[in-house]
Automatic annotation (TrEMBL):
Residue ranges constituting the CUE domain according to the UniProt record: 8-51
CDD domains associated with the record: CUE
Organism from which the protein derives: Adineta ricciae
The protein's name: CUE domain-containing protein
UniProt GO MF annotations: ubiquitin binding
Residue ranges of the region described as Disordered: 110-132
Length: 132
């Protein structure tokens, strides 16, 4: 019985490895265990991840050079995650001026909140935990 089960698992891993060759085999095995051997769920999860990565690559290709130039021009933007900046570039259709204005608004909000904003957010979260 155990060998039959192992053969089934090996077959599932082989099928997944053919479909997603870039994913490490140990990661595939871990996902199979997490989803109780349901390879449809594993494949759906990996396909969704692959789709997100393809979109990120597409955005990087379209807006990467402009974003790099903007990051060199505005040091405050360097602290923001590149993925978020790429999505912002997409939202504004690659308009560097609009992205710069957006980044300035975000920076101003962070300065306005300062460290007290983080503390109050933390305190608010704790109050909600005790309330509910």
């Amino acid at each position: 019985m155990a060998t039959n089960q192992q053969q089934t698992i090996d077959e599932q891993l082989r099928v997944l490895k053919e479909r997603f060759p870039q994913v490490d085999e140990s990661k595939l095995a871990c996902l199979c265990r997490r989803h109780n051997g349901n390879i449809e769920q594993v494949a759906a999860r990996l396909a969704k991840r692959e789709s997100r990565m393809n979109k990120f690559d597409s955005l990087e290709t379209r807006f990467g050079p402009n974003l790099t130039a903007l990051q060199q021009e505005c040091p405050s933007i360097q602290s923001m995650k590149r993925g978020r900046l790429l999505k912002t570039m997409e939202r504004y259709g690659g308009d560097v001026d609009q992205v710069r204005k957006f980044a300035q608004k975000v920076e101003a909000r962070h300065h306005r909140e300062g460290e007290h904003g983080c503390v109050s957010r933390h305190q608010h979260r704790e109050e909600l935990k005790t309330k509910y």
